[in-house]
Amino acid sequence: MSYSSDTLCTPGDPSLKSQGAHTEVLERMGHLTQSIEEHIGQLSTGHQQLEAHSPGQGPGEQEALLSHQMGQVVSLLQSETNGLLPHPLDSRVDIGAGQPGPFTKPTSDCETTLVSHDLSNRGNDISTFYHTHFRNYILYHEDKYHEDKNPSGFINLATCQNKLCTDLITERLSREDMNIIEDTLLQYPDWRGHPFLREEVARFLTHYSKAPAQLDPENVVVLNGCCPVLSALAMVLCEPGEAFLTPAPFYGTFVFSTSLYAKVELIHVYLDSEITEGNTRPFQLTVDKLEHTLLEAQLKGKKVRGLVLTNPQNPLGDVYSRDSLIEYLEFAKRYNLHVIVDEIYMLSVFDESTTFHSVLSIKSLPDPKRTHVIWGTSKCFGICGFRFGALYTHNKEVASAVSSFGYFHSISGIAQHKLCRLLQDREWIDQVYLPISHSRLQVAHRYITDKLKELQIPYLHRGAGLYVWINLKKYLDPCTFEQELLLLRRFLDKKVIVGTGKFFLCKEPGWFRLVFAERYPQLKLAMDRFCQVLAEQQLEKQPEDTMRM
Amino acid sequence: MSYSSDTLCTPGDPSLKSQGAHTEVLERMGHLTQSIEEHIGQLSTGHQQLEAHSPGQGPGEQEALLSHQMGQVVSLLQSETNGLLPHPLDSRVDIGAGQPGPFTKPTSDCETTLVSHDLSNRGNDISTFYHTHFRNYILYHEDKYHEDKNPSGFINLATCQNKLCTDLITERLSREDMNIIEDTLLQYPDWRGHPFLREEVARFLTHYSKAPAQLDPENVVVLNGCCPVLSALAMVLCEPGEAFLTPAPFYGTFVFSTSLYAKVELIHVYLDSEITEGNTRPFQLTVDKLEHTLLEAQLKGKKVRGLVLTNPQNPLGDVYSRDSLIEYLEFAKRYNLHVIVDEIYMLSVFDESTTFHSVLSIKSLPDPKRTHVIWGTSKCFGICGFRFGALYTHNKEVASAVSSFGYFHSISGIAQHKLCRLLQDREWIDQVYLPISHSRLQVAHRYITDKLKELQIPYLHRGAGLYVWINLKKYLDPCTFEQELLLLRRFLDKKVIVGTGKFFLCKEPGWFRLVFAERYPQLKLAMDRFCQVLAEQQLEKQPEDTMRM
């Protein structure tokens, strides 16, 4: 951590407006939520078995009824507390990577998501999960900031988008070579991705990953985003109910990606912020931690099939050293685990002193047949709207099996064409795009970290990614996930969206992720709003001190 | 049927080269296949229940082993019969809508699809299903016909693509208004689809479906294809193991769409070609048949949640009358079934005397909350490469639940922009595109049906769709699915791909679907190859007659 790690957490202040009452109700909520969760858990486990025997009004209906009844109790409680409380299914979100935003209309939300008799129980569950997980994202889309048209709209520092080079990419995408319409682009494609794009991806990754030998286009599968690739890998590598290990904090939507279709659990390898003997830097991933979590999971009867890593890490910004990477890969080999490395932030290493090592650059991979890379252009090229993700694997059977999902997760031919042209233009990428992109990332990173230093907010100083992982514990009293949620609510009230640690499955409350790859005027406005919220929060915590000043 | 319904099936001819031996081996294959299928069926049923109890080496492993062993026996048999026989998992394809093409390398195919220890059992199953179902499609992509570069490549009359107006659509897509790159197109979208596109889809469908009132953009969800929409509907309307009814023959890939993720079964309402008292025209869909199949399924303990219709029908080309449509909807209402109507061929009604009635045009829908429409531009605009499908439902809860799938099935922003511009340009659609498209469809339909008449091949004369449903029974001896497959093999040997009745889950062997929306030179060449195959087939059946001529 670059900055003082004083978290400045202060003990509870009795003058804090009704926070004590909130906490009490939050606790009651917690018990209820847990109770619902347990019931649903039990029923879900028994669900498919029971459904197979009695397709009639089975436990599914009971589940809906129970959820509804509990939901009503919770709604009552919620209405008493001015809609400040989490969703009744937020406990699921603890497991399920929620960004539990506040309720605009808590009661009706409950009703729409829990009580539709036109939907199956599965349909209700998915809809509830989705709308809880993406609540703030949906809010943002309903009320986006616009300089002229909607200056009081939301600015989103939670969703990881790179808006710093939209000018460059727009210019490149507008050139003539982009707008060629060939017949094949209009027809059904090879479901693995058009050959021209797979060839270009193989060439591109060979170069930028520093692969020791030319990568094979036959080992590339192109789908409409990296999460569909992760979902497809979970489908083909695991049976339902099996698991992957992944270090936490991690990108919360991975949970949605592995659970929605594949029913694969992500077992969290919890990382600590505190520096100890086994933890030479905050949130360090060690083989000990991996091994400990794996053995613990196995003792509980879990069947762990793989390890999911993100490098550069999201939300930490850590870039794994070559040695660390090999250690993780060797650990996985010892336990016959697949390793899936998401390298989507590969070209977002903006600090020149930081060296990124792609897993594809390692000459003698410990277990090449079980090492799979996910990559896409969303982050580094700032074009997440293209919906492009690629798998590279040395295992032809895995590539072949993942290609089965192309029919459901394919990208428009015209988008494939543009992507190919973009990746082909190495001169522009190397001479224009990457230097400017990295320099703008540096400037934005400096701006935001200077602000954080001013506010004496600890953060992880890293040279990669589009975000910074910060510690707001000193603003939480007590330092709990409930208070983290209440602080988020304050940010939302001021129309700035930030990512909570809870969304990233962080074990410790008080951490947040700020995306800084936002154009300056918006980033400045967002940070003004952010600082204002923290000032008010501080004011409420220490009103007497402030009044004395 | 417009043409003589003499199917001209002739009894077995002893001179037919080794067909008797083939038939015997095919029968043995059939028993083996059935045996594998039963084992797999039993294991699959018990699978999830057992896996939950013993996550170790369970029935899944046994299943793989069994499949492998049986596969080897089958491979041996296959090698004896020159690779002419179906895949060991083709019996699954009977249920699962296979286009069981021939084996180029049957043994190695078996091995790659069945014995990967790096994949889960589920992964192996999906990969096998996909590669079996899409085998001819994959073959086609490996060896596509090209006038200059590959004149002996495959011409594909099996995959339903509209290539007749590529010139028009390419010209329209190349105009300047198409190539605008706005920031929002590059960023993460509203996962329901960009608002501008949903608004345009609502306006478009209001107009072309003749809706009695303006349709609501909030009821539109845009995903990357119509099959993802069907899959998402199956996910949210059904529990795993539940079912939809659908009249057969139908588009075989629906089985993949409802089973891959949703595990929803399609129960076939079998239609007959023969004209009887209850069947005033070939393959007529009646409420009696729907009701009979539903009650029979319910007796077997199936939980049927809905009815899936395609209008205009694929592969029959039938366009439902308004009265028929209302009868089906009322039947569904009586039994609390959802109705999903796939209207993707809506604007492909090329015969002026045929009137299409969208379900959205019906003023008093029997059960509007359970009536859902799927629509896309792939067929009528010949742009299946765009990967665009839309749901329209009056049920906001269903729309909301289906939007949960947008994250995994979204389309590129730039493609959404182009689609919106295309749908907006009503003048071009009404004055240029549709008149020319319909006229070219008429010409191609006339060309192909004239050929069929010459050959005295019975077919369904319909004025909608891009295909014609033909009866080749007279070329099969005996008239079995095995012989249907052997005939397909002959077509493939001559590098023309056609759709077998089996792919469309037709109950009667001998039917095929020919797509005629192919540009003239290719269509002519394809039909030349087609005629040559039939001539040879005829020759082998009646060598003495021919020699006497």
TrEMBL record, chains A, B:
<feature type="region of interest" description="Disordered">
    <location>
        <begin position="42"/>
        <end position="62"/>
    </location>
</feature>
<dbReference type="InterPro" id="IPR004839">
    <property type="entry name" value="Aminotransferase_I/II_large"/>
</dbReference>
<dbReference type="GO" id="GO:0008483">
    <property type="term" value="F:transaminase activity"/>
</dbReference>
<dbReference type="GO" id="GO:0006520">
    <property type="term" value="P:amino acid metabolic process"/>
</dbReference>
<feature type="region of interest" description="Disordered">
    <location>
        <begin position="1"/>
        <end position="20"/>
    </location>
</feature>
<dbReference type="GO" id="GO:0030170">
    <property type="term" value="F:pyridoxal phosphate binding"/>
</dbReference>
<dbReference type="InterPro" id="IPR015424">
    <property type="entry name" value="PyrdxlP-dep_Trfase"/>
</dbReference>
<dbReference type="InterPro" id="IPR050478">
    <property type="entry name" value="Ethylene_sulfur-biosynth"/>
</dbReference>
<feature type="domain" description="Aminotransferase class I/classII large">
    <location>
        <begin position="162"/>
        <end position="518"/>
    </location>
</feature>
<protein>
    <submittedName>
        <fullName>Probable inactive 1-aminocyclopropane-1-carboxylate synthase-like protein 2</fullName>
    </submittedName>
</protein>
<dbReference type="InterPro" id="IPR015421">
    <property type="entry name" value="PyrdxlP-dep_Trfase_major"/>
</dbReference>
<keyword id="KW-0663">Pyridoxal phosphate</keyword>
<dbReference type="Pfam" id="PF00155">
    <property type="entry name" value="Aminotran_1_2"/>
</dbReference>
<dbReference type="InterPro" id="IPR015422">
    <property type="entry name" value="PyrdxlP-dep_Trfase_small"/>
</dbReference>
